[in-house]
Amino acid sequence: MRKQWVWLLAIGAAGCGKHGDATAEAARAPSRSGDVWETENAADRKAAPATVLAFVNGLHTMVLDGSDVYAGTTRLSTTTDTAGGRVVALSNGLSARLVPAGDAMELRFASGESISMRKQTRKGK
Amino acid sequence: MIRSYILATIACGATVLFAGRLEAQSEGFDSTAVAAAYHKLSGDSLDLQAAAQQSASVQRATQFDKQDATTAEVARLRAFIANADPSREFVISVNDNISQYDHEHGEFSIGLFQPGYFVPLEAFGQRYQLVFANAERVRAIPMEKAAARDFDAKLNAMGRGVLNEIHFKVTGQGDPAGAVTGPRVVRAEVTSSRLLDRQGHVVFTPSITASPTLKNVAATEFDATKADIAGFRVGVSAADFAATLERLFGPVTKGPAERNAFAGIAGTVSMNGDGCFSYPGRRNNPKPGAVCVTGNVDNGGIVRSIRVERLFAPVDEEVFRKALTQKYGPVADARNGSSFVLGWGPTIDSALVYDRSGPRTALTAHYTVDSDFMREGLNEADDVRLILTLVDAAWAAKNAR
Questions:
Q1: Which of B334, B383, B52 is nearest to B182 (CA)?
Q2: Per the CB < 8 Å rule, is B233 touching A74?
Q3: Angle at CA A66, nearest 5°, toward A61 and A72?
Q4: Of B20, B88, B150, B212, whose CB is crowded by the most CB atoms within 10 A?
Q5: Nearest residue of A to residue B327 by CA position?
């Protein structure tokens, strides 16, 4: 049975002063394993600021596979936080949390923006 | 500490954001000291001969003495710049205004500290644009609604006008947010600020908040092989790039290199091609959420440049600018206008540049309004198209013709 992961994603401070990040590396997203999550409400103006932030950081459409997050061709290693979720490091100290919301999740950036995410359902998959 | 003052008038209600400016009415302000610190810190050389010609001593000199006066003035200016003290703190006082209360964010905003605003200075016979790199950190006047009501009434009684006394130091060249462009952009850091009423009473003292934005990342530190745009990186194999695209978004298309492609580019891998581009009046124009990705692949099957686009519901350009400067640090180059382009990293060959009117840097970010006359006819706001491009600059330098 596929595990219904409850993700709590915090993107911690790391790699300050660099355009890369010690915990991020180039990688191919898995072809089958994990799930593809994407931001919801693309046409909603109120959601646009958070969607922009997610896009710039590659989290607007991402694969969650075990303890790894794939943002484009960047694999972000994660650690478990005290709430049982995942902590991910991005560049330049940005932080966010991915909070469960039923079958969906909510990506909450520390700067205040938040956006709902859903599992991608695509024909042919 | 040497205190200098300048009185300036803010261009209230400026509709062109990028041209927000304060017309200076200089009264004893030593703008030449600011300019000298700028030249010393930035390495942007001053045309000493031209500057000397503008000086009072040369202009007063008779034709007979003009050459000697010019020589002396050039020497004086050279020494003046060499002796400029980068640690010197300046103080300017600017006629500023306070915005209406932002109920969503629970704050007022200080006009001068909004993106795109600058103070024009005159020195050495030429114009300088003074921008505050940490303006975002002093822009807000956070306040609970109850207190804000009284504060707002007080501001209304003053016509919302205040005298903004700013202590600052010159730190270098260019607007790190890329909102102010052009020659001689003096970058400064606000060290403290006070808002005063006409009688000189303190209305508010902004605090400089801690912020992860605009870290002092030097352009020389940029490494295209470690950077990513929306998660995508150069230097990966075309097979991995295509597989990732297919998993995230859908079917990919492989094709030959475009005509006039950069030397060494052998083909393309794309997803949704130019499907993010709207054609006026077309029924099936892309909607917000549409994503398009194209990678250029070299002879060895490695992705050397990438373009990622996405269409968004109407969103303020400053949201995009802030997200980018948070991620990539101070902007290395920029072009402003009805749309804007920000650039980071080293200069690359023009054949690899997505938009040749913009910065020719390894990483660029484009904000453009997706105009549609049908939507405009219905008085609806236009969607926004954001485009990120990344080029493997080291590879490009090796393969330049």
A1: B334
A2: yes
A3: 30
A4: B20
A5: A92
A15/B contact by beta carbon, under 8 A: no
Give bridge partners of residue B194 from the DSSP assignment.
B165
Burial status of residue B252 (CB atoms within 10 A of its CB: 0-12, 13-18, 19 or more): buried
Q: Report the candidate in B56, B83, B80 with the shortest Cα–Cα distance to residue B69.
A: B56
> What letters, b where the CB count within 10 A reaches 16 and e where it falls short, cover A48-86?
bbbbbbbbbbbbbbbbbbeebbbbbbbbbbbeeeeeebb
Q: Which of B265, B230, B238, B234 is nearest to B254 (CA)?
A: B238
Q: What are the residue boundaries of the structural domains of chain B, listed by start?
A: 7-211, 220-399
A77-81 average pLDDT score: 71
Distance from CA of A96 to the nearest CA of B (A): 13
> How far is B204 from B195, CA to CA, in rounded Å?
5
Mutation choice for B interface testing from A18, A19, A75 by most B CBs within 10 A: A19
* ipTM of the complex as predicted: 0.81
Give the per-residue pLDDT at A19. Answer: 39
Give yes or no for residue B37 having a pLDDT over 60: yes
A 10 A CB-CB count for B345 gives: 24
Residues 6+ apart with CB under 8 A from B114: B17, B20, B135, B139
User: What pLDDT does B352 receive?
Assistant: 85
Is pLDDT of B372 > 60?
yes
Q: Which two tokens stand for residue A70?
A: 């794939």
CA distance B237 to B243: 10
Residue type at B340 in one-letter notation? F
Beta bridge partners of B297: B267, B303
CB nearest to B231's CB, from A18, A28, A72: A72
Write the CB contacts of B172 (distance below 8 Å, at least 6 apart in sequence): B38, B41, B42, B187
CA atoms within 13 A on the CB side of A112: 6
Rounded to two decimals, what is the model's pTM? 0.78
Lowest-confidence pick of B233-242, B244-253, B369-378? B369-378
pLDDT digits (tens, 9 = 90+) for B181-191: 889 999 999 99
B97, B22 Cβ separation under 8 angstroms:
no
Q: What number of other Cβ atoms are within 10 A of residue B68's Cβ?
A: 11
State both tokens at A97: 């949390």
Helices (H) and strands (E) in chain B, counts: 9, 18
For residue B245, what are the CA distances in angstroms to A68, B267, B305, B312, B366? 17, 16, 15, 20, 21
Measured between alpha carbons, how far is B70 from B76 in angstroms, rounded to an integer? Answer: 10
Q: What is the chain B residue with the closest CA to A90?
A: B327
